[in-house]
Amino acid sequence: MLSKGLKRKREEEEEEEEEEEKEALAVDTWWLDSDHPAVAQAPPAVASSSLFDLSVLKLHHSLRQSEPDLRHLVLVVNTLRRIQASMVPTAALPPVPSLPAAPGMADSLLASSDAALSASMASLLEDLSHIEGLSQAPQPLAEEGPQGRPIGGAPPSLGSLDLLDPATGCLLDDGLEGLFEDIDTSMYDSELWAPASEGLKPGPEDGSGKEDTPELKETELKDTELDYLMDVLVGTQALERPPGPGR
Amino acid sequence: MAGAGGGGCPASGNDLQWCFSQVKGAIDEDVAEADIISTVEFNYSGDLLATGDKGGRVVIFQREQENKSHPHSRGEYNVYSTFQSHEPEFDYLKSLEIEEKINKIRWLPQQNAAHFLLSTNDKTIKLWKISERDKRAEGYNLKDEDGRLRDPFRITALRVPILKPMDLMVEASPRRIFANAHTYHINSISVNSDHETYLSADDLRINLWHLEITDRSFNIVDIKPANMEELTEVITAAEFHPHQCNVFVYSSSKGTIRLCDMRSSALCDRHSKFFEEPEDPSSRSFFSEIISSISDVKFSHSGRYMMTRDYLSVKVWDLNMESRPVETHQVHEYLRSKLCSLYENDCIFDKFECCWNGPDSAIMTGSYNNFFRMFDRNTRRDVTLEASRENSKPRASLKPRRVCPGGKRKKDEISVDSLDFNKKILHTAWHPNDNIIAVAATNNLYIFQDKVN
Fold first, then answer.
1. Contact A32 B341 (CB under 8 A)
2. Mean pLDDT, chain B, whole residue set
3. A18, exposed or middle or buried, with CB in 10 Å at 0-12, 13-18, 19+?
4. Hey, how many other C-beta atoms are within 10 angstroms of the C-beta on A185?
5. Chain A partners within 8 Å of B285 (Cβ)
6. What Gene Ontology terms describe where this protein resides (cellular component) (chain A) (predicted)?
7. Which of A185, A230, A232 has the highest number of chain B CBs within 10 A, making it the mutation to test binding with B?
8. Fewer CB within a 10 Å sphere, N or C end of chain B?
């Protein structure tokens, strides 16, 4: 469901990953042996290279999730940027055992990774915001229902202007009838899950109601009578007695 | 104040001898993912203790009344109610499964016989009513004992229904469902001191709700950049001030805390106060930002201070001083040299919570290897304790643990390399008044009390 652009970039990076894998494994063991407290600040270029690889791997893993953990993603990306920033000045990586990459190759890896990284990050985040926009598409139908849209996430300015007094920031009572109705919860005893179903069925109920023909209205009446009878039989409704003599 | 340490001095983390009280949960080595506890919370009186797990279930424990004939089972917590709060859902629009894991539980202050709590997963918040039924009515006129309706024309005499005692039944019912207001993952909920509203926070937005209204919420903070490519910071936690109903704080992944006043503007994108400690240049590393990311923020009960938890430390801030914290407590400084490995195995992203004791004189937070740490703010002493089955004899005192950072290991010390990073204590809670603590260790809930208590 994510953009094709992302896939394409990933393919490129997967090739790079394979090349670096052999080196990464060997380097892993080197910096994992971290009893030495100075490891985190070890020769920056060398530490950066393996950390960079690791961070790219983490980024890929994060991006592959159907719904990435945004905090994890942002932290990894920021760390990657930090590592990149520290690597840029160094034209060549100092020789490290079992790291056969030539300086030139390292540079091009960096350059292409950088572009691929930015592109994949950008496209992912754009996708996230597009998806959000998509889920808010029904928003314009809000006028139909008296209670407004159950779907939240309204553009902040719109939501706030409508419902918050700009001066005091307090909830407005105007136009929100029933906002502070009786809070006795016994009212809701037979309405379990009703709010959720409201959320799933947007405005159209009201909209179609306005176009009822007389025939339809008749059917509706019969339906409600039927419901009433059903409820009585099932026992959820008390039987309403007809008025007796003398009343 | 109940549970005072003796001698009239305020009870705190270290004047006391902490003892094992109870452990809840299975003993199996193989832990089912669904049973992993994801949140722990005492209610306002401390009589109820709620846990949420990855399987979307909520289990509530109730403290037993002290019984003179059984002085040893003083204040034990037993299961009061269990219910399925959230189910796994599928978002068809995005083709995503929404986890049922309970991220947070927050109790509402009790206003009548029933108890109310808010529980949330990544997307939906629910208000649950937990009520007791210990009587039932018998002798209806219109229906017989089986519930079948009686023919009204056959009734020749009327009787008054009477209430008869029955076995206690505790019912949990969902009273409100607050859905469809969060695009990103909800990390926090917080009930306002007005007892009418609450906030919910996800990675980029904070919404304000009225407890009675489910079909709309008000967005009060939005840090989503116009261009998502510019995203560099997310919201990690948020909480209302305990007394000032217009004030709340939220923390970020960059180690900053913003205090907002809802009276100043409808949209609180502009903060009233900004708390950040300048970075120590000598300890700067590639991981500086990750370890500065705040995983929890909690106001003190007094409302004068707030506490933040980042990866290696707990900081106490005076709300009147934004430039730096008034206290910094190291939780596991010995991990600083291991950050590379912890980054590799993702432990560096673990989100630890923290909590205050009733009088705000001590704070507690979790660590690895099922260790948890307590800091006494007055005496400046700290202690490391362990939640383990080995120390589970009734009323057995907990022995302080020590971690050896490196080099020679003394007797009774454990070396850093021997720590089990899969045994993490992320969630802890402290009884609001007494010295009783609840510590969640994966799928087990440990309850410890002090000896005097």
1. yes
2. 92
3. exposed
4. 17
5. 40-41
6. nucleus
7. A185
8. N
Taking one residue from A and the other from B, the number of pairs with CB-CB distance under 8 angstroms is 186
Detail the DSSP E strand segments found in B30-114. 37-42, 48-53, 57-63, 77-84, 89-91, 96-98, 104-107
Probe site for chain B from A70, A73, A200, A232 (most B CB atoms < 10 A): A70
pLDDT band, residue B401 (cuts 50/70/90): very high
The DSSP annotation for B344-366 comes to: HTTGGG----EEE-TTSSEEEEE
The per-residue pLDDT for A246 is 46
Q: What is the 8-class DSSP label of residue B129?
A: E
3-state secondary structure A102-163: CHHHHHHHHHHHHHHHHHHHHHHHHHHHHHHHHHCCCHHHHHHCCCCCCCCCCCHHHHHHHH
Q: Given the DSSP bridges, would you call strands B205-210 and B327-330 parallel, antiparallel or unpaired?
A: unpaired
A165, amino acid identity: D
State how far the Cα of B315 lies from the Cα of A212, in Å rounded to an integer: 64
Is-contact B55 B35, C-beta < 8 A?
A: yes
Q: For residue B336, which residues of chain A lie inside 8 Å, CB to CB?
A: 37, 40
b/e for B150-188, b at 16 or more Cβ within 10 A?
Answer: eeeeeeeeeeeeeeeeeeeebebebbbbbbbbbbbbbbb
Residues A182 and B150: their CA atoms lie apart, in Å, by 34
Element at B209 (helix H, strand E): strand B205-210
User: HEC string of B415-441?
Assistant: EHHHCCCCCECCEEEECCCCCEEEEEE
Domain boundaries, chain B: 18-450
Q: Does B229 sit within 8 Å of A179, measured CB to CB?
A: no
Query: In the block, which residue shows the tokens 């520290």?
Result: A86
Q: Are the beta carbons of B43 and B110 closer than 8 angstroms?
A: yes
Partner residue opposite B289 with nearest CB, options A79, A148, A163: A79
ipTM score of complex: 0.90
Q: Which fold has domain B18-450?
A: Methylamine Dehydrogenase; Chain H (2.130.10)
Query: Residue A34: its chain B contacts at CB < 8 A?
Result: 337-338, 340-341
| CA-to-CA separations, B344 to A32, A54, A161, in angstroms, rounded | 9, 7, 46
Q: Which residue has 């003083």 as its token pair?
A: B74
pLDDT at B352 over 80: yes
Instruction: Answer left, alpha or beta for residue A79, where phi above 0 means left and psi between -120 and 50 means alpha.
Output: alpha
Which pTM does this prediction carry?
0.71
Q: Which of B184, B264, B349 sits opposite A72 (nearest CB)?
A: B349
Partner-chain residue, chosen from A36, A75, A152, that has the shortest CB–CB distance to B216 = A152
- Asked whether residue B104 carries a pLDDT value surpassing 90, the answer given is yes
**Residues constituting chain B:** 453
The order of strands in the sheet holding B273-275 is: B235-240, B247-252, B257-261, B273-275
Q: What one-character-per-residue DSSP string does B288-325 give?
A: HHHHH---EEEE-TTSSEEEEE-SSEEEEEETT--SS-
Quote the pLDDT of residue A224.
Answer: 66
